[in-house]
Each structure stands twice: as C-alpha cells, then as structure tokens.
User: Fold Xanthine dehydrogenase family protein molybdopterin-binding subunit from Nannocystis radixulma.
Amino acid sequence: MATANRRIGGPGERVDAGLKVTGQARYAADVVLPNLAHAAYLGSAIASGRVLTIDTTGAEQAGGVLLILTHHNRGPLGDLPNGDGTALAPDPRPPLADARVHYHGQFVAMVVAESPEQAAHAASRIEVTYEPVPCVVDIDDAEALRLAENPGRGDWAAALRAAPVALDVLYSSPVQHPCPLEPHATVAHWVGHDLVVYDSTQWVLGDRALLARAFGLADDRVQIFAPFVGGSFGSKVCTAAHTLLAAVAARRLGRPVKSVLRREQVLATIGPRAATRQRIQLAAERDGRLVALRHHTRSHCAVNSGFPDRDPFHEPTSSVTRMLYACPNYEAVHDVVPLHLMKPGWMRAPGEATGLWALEGAMDELACQLGVDPLELRLRNHSARNAHTGKPYAGEHLRECYERGAERFGWARRDPRPRSMREGDAFVGWGLATATHPGNSDDASVRVRLDCDSRGAYAIVATAGVDLGTGLYTALAVVVADALELPLARVHVELGDSRLPPAPVTGGSNLTASLAPAARAACLQLRRRLLGFRRDPDEVAAWGELLARAGLGHIEAIGATESRAVPEQYAYQSFGAQFVEVRVVPELGQVRVTRVVGVFDVGQVVNATATRNQLIGGIVFGLGQTLLEQLVHDPARGVPVGADLSGYLLPVHADVPDIDVSWLDAPDPAFNSLGCRGAGEIGITGVAAAIASAVHHATGIRVRDLPITPERLLAGMAGEREK
Ligand code: MOS
Assistant:
C-alpha cells in the first residue's frame, strides 16, 4: 500500500502562516475571559537570606486590588513531583513556600488586581525587610561538588603519558538565557472543581500532571491548552512558578487570573543555560589520531537544588565528547557549583552546544599544533559507531557532510597560516566544526479522522503535542496529506490540548520524529479499512464514495509511535559540518561573521521550509551564543544586570550573514517509518567552535571564553604584540 509521497521533503507553505500574520493565532497572553483578573509579582531584592517582614497595607489600599499572596497566606499545595519528568521551575520548592530567599528576583509576593497596571502598582507598594547573607553568583568563586561519575573507557591517564602529542585547554561559557520572543504567560480558570489553563508551555501533559498533584485532582480534571507558543528553546519544559500561582489565585478568587511575566522577570526567574568551565585534555599520535580524551566540566546549579538527593541539573557537556570521535581511552567527570541563582535548565541543544564548543575548539588547536588541516583531522578520527556504546549508527553520513560543505564553502582554497587572508582593513578567517545531535523519539499518539463535506474528503489530525513555532502543524499536515492523498488545505491539524491523544514534551528535537510516524500509521489504518470497500483492487474511488459504501459518516484511527520499537542494536544520531568565514578589523576587535555553510544529515526531511527555518534559526542562535550573549550578575548583590532585550544582546538582522544550509537525502528507516530524526537543535551545535576557529585563523588569537567580545579579542591582540 505505497502512498504517493508527493509532499514529504518538499518546500510547501507553512499551514499556520496565515493565522500568525493576521494575528488570529491565539497565544496564552491573548486569552480574554469574562471577569478576568491580572497578576503581578514582587521579586526579592536580595539574592540570599530571608524575608523578615512583609507589609502589604499600602498595597491592599491601592485601587483594584483583589488578592495579595505571600508565604504567610499562600495556603497548602500537594506534594509536587521534581524529577526529570514533570518538574517545577525554576525553584524546586513551590513558590511562596517560606521566608528563605535563594536568588535575586525570587517571588516574595503576588498581587492580583482588576488590571495589570493596578497589580503592578500595588506590588510596588509592598514593603519588605530582609535579613541578607552574602551571596555567591560566580562559578569561579564557589566550591564544586562532584557528581556521580559515568563509566569511562580504557586508561586515559596512561595513554596521555605515553602519547607523543598532548593538549590541555580550558574553555568557558557564561550564563546564557533562552529568551523566547513570547514571554512566559498563563491564564488559569476554575470551572466548577475543574482547572482549565491556557499556558505557554512545551508540554501540556507535564503541566497537567504537576497541577493535578498540586491541587489533589485526577488528571482528567485538569485541562491545558497551548495551541501556539512563541518560542521557548527549553525554557517552557517545566511548569513555572507563575503558572502554579495563577491557578492558586484563580481558585481563591473564583475568577480567572492572567499572569504574564515581564521581560526582566523571564530573565531573572526562568532557568538559564548553566555557566560552564571545561577542561579538555587530548592526546594523539603524530598523525592526529586520538588516543586519549579527558573532559572535566564544572557547571553551576542552584544552592537549593537538593543535591545530592535530587538532580541539581548539570549541563550535560560530556554527551558529545564521549561518543563523537574514535578514541580508545576516555574519561568524563562533572562537578556542579551551587550558586545563589535560579536553577538552570535546558537551553537549545543542552550539552551539545556547550560540549562541542570545548571539544571542537580543542580539535582545531590540535590541528594547528600538528600542522594538519582541521577537516583532515576530523576525518582521521571519524567513527562510524557511537564511540562509547560501540553501536553502529543506523544512518550516518558525516563524511559526506564534510565533503559537500567543504565544496560549497571553498575550503580547499584556505591558506592555513593565521593572518594570511586580508580584505581591506580586515583580517579574514575560515573555521569549521562538526555538528551533532542525537536522534530522539518518545511514545506518542495521533488521531486522524477522515470526513467528507460538499467539497470532498478532509482530515482532522489531533494530538496533545505542542508546536513551539517550529513547524509541527505543517509537518503533520504534510504527512497526512501525503498518506491520504488529500490537498494540504483539506488537512486540519489540532495541537496543544491535553484532552487530545498523548504526546511527549516538545524537547530534544524529538517531536516530528515521534508524531509524524504516528500520524502516518493512523492514515495507513484508515486506508486499509476503506480500501477494503473497493469493488476490485484497481478501482479508483474517492474517499467519500468508500465511506458511503461502508455506511460510515466518517472514520477515525489512532496511530502510535513506540520508542521501544526502535531497534536497539543501532545508535541514532544526526550530524553536520559547519563552515564559517569571519572578518575582524584588528583596531576594533569586532568579529563579523560574513558567511556560514552548513550541511546536515537529519534523516528524511518532512518539510523543507520548516527544516531550513530550524537549521538557520539554530545557526543564528549560535551567533548569539558565540559573540553576544551573557547574563551577568552583580557579584556583590547577585542582581542580574541589564536583564532585558537591550542589555542581554541577541543577534539582529544586521548581525546575520548569508547562511547556506542544505541537507543530505538520507532517510534513517531503522529509526521510524519515515526515517526522520528532527532538526530543531543541531544547527546551533558547531557554530561557536567554528567561529572561534575562524577568529584564530583571521587573527592568530585563540579565545576560549564566550562570548568572543571585542574586549577579549583586543586584549588577546595586545598580549600578542607584547610578546
Ligand atoms: Mo529543548 S532545550 O530540546 O527543550
């Protein structure tokens, strides 16, 4: 029963584009309900210590105030889960739990009023006294705690001693923030004893589980809606404090409550990417083949993360160093450093984006040390299996990515000597890095209903999965249109509703690979059932005709993807090769990225428009990671400095060069029926190391600390002149 396959992988329109450009797509903060009340928060003015007194008298007298919650009157909540699954963010304690303060900006009071302005005004009139204790917010200023160690392989120390070539380098990255364009927002509404929540979340079922526990309700008494989400990048996985408090306040008031975080509250109270310090020790034969690799990471966690009983959250940097290159002797150790900051969390390609920054930077240094071309060094260390588990990749085409990328970029014309290429006042440099991200999928289900109206057959596709703006609406419409041979406009997709068939969190680039095969499976069930009503196997009959013969008004089926069904003898991993050109005017120290070429193997692409958008978006995210982004905290008081979009710098159009992304036509059929692996995160993974390598090629200066700011580069060049 082969289907037409007309659309899979083709360009095609974004099916949600019309709703978005006309403002009809309704995000959480757009929800308006009768009698809606509005929340505002007062954040702690200290980073460490406790609240002594809270005087709410002035706030209570302010206009429009309906309710003020503090730790004195927030009331009881059920026992909340705090595992790797559903979890409360950013603080593992429920909000307004007690007088303790663990980070600056932690909510100490919530005000609900008739209007957002009245709520904010009243919050400003609350008077709080504190007993501060000194805070520590710099990862280099606090003691580290060793996490349980993962098994290594071989004997790295002996191999390092015996090797003819060795390298020992320290790479750092600062606290960075996902900063989604849409601030975190919730509307909570009690309908009788049932809780209805409109939330900007990556995971309606995670929200549902947490809120059901908090209020002692059965899961089906809680409904979560997230039809549209305006970006998240990991920051909307967990259920946030403002979501829980909106539900508490709505119940107390008997009115719906809207809670929209201000931009500085997003930056101050939603978990960021942890700061890292990564020591990489490499040892190699003279031809560049690695014989030992040791990776020692420190990343920050929150002081109140409950370590060692609970996972304090560690930035999983070693996920890439352990598997990428063939290397017989390997060890990774990870320390966490508790700081008076909100608990860090996931941010686009957690682990890969930070781990490859260090590993691929070190590989470029090794190439320079050996006088081997950096691309050639990667080829000499290429591994066709996961170097740690030893499992062969079911689909692996990294060499082809390198080859095509090098050709598109013109890598062969590179003069390896630093400062050898100039254009006008600028030094020009070329660098490259490997990109990689695991192929992830989780148990997921999709319902497809085939129906008919006066214009013919149409399908309704439904799942609880959430489209974060990545193109899931389009991907599912494409898969169903293809499998049922319907025009794209005749497929209607419903997402982000906890009552629909269950789907996993949108995270780890997993959702298309989880849901697209499930949608296809549902369609194939429908086809099988309806095609049985043909008069003979060659008869061409419209779906409407077959439905009529079957005596059915409509027909529906649920398709499922089971992560357990993936063959275990294989590893599933996406790869890419990223090439970057920079221009550096030495007097200014400013790095302009002028060209990027990325060639990726992400398995079967379902929709080219959305995939391009994801890969380019990942690369732009990487430009920010490398050149601009750092969330700085004042070391004396722990205050996030410049915590808004004028102080926390993100790439703008003028920072974004010509980006050439392409992908191989390489389905991974062992992974799922479509052979697709997901493309949401891989785009960012190699960017930082590729830019740093290009900067070194341009200037001769190796910057190992992100972001690569003009100050750092000028300091490096000044140091070079003194030598
Ligand atoms: Mo993400 S950082 O895959 O939620």
Q: What stands out?
A: The chain is about 25% helix and 25% strand. The longest helix spans residues 511-531. The two ends are 72 Å apart (CA to CA).
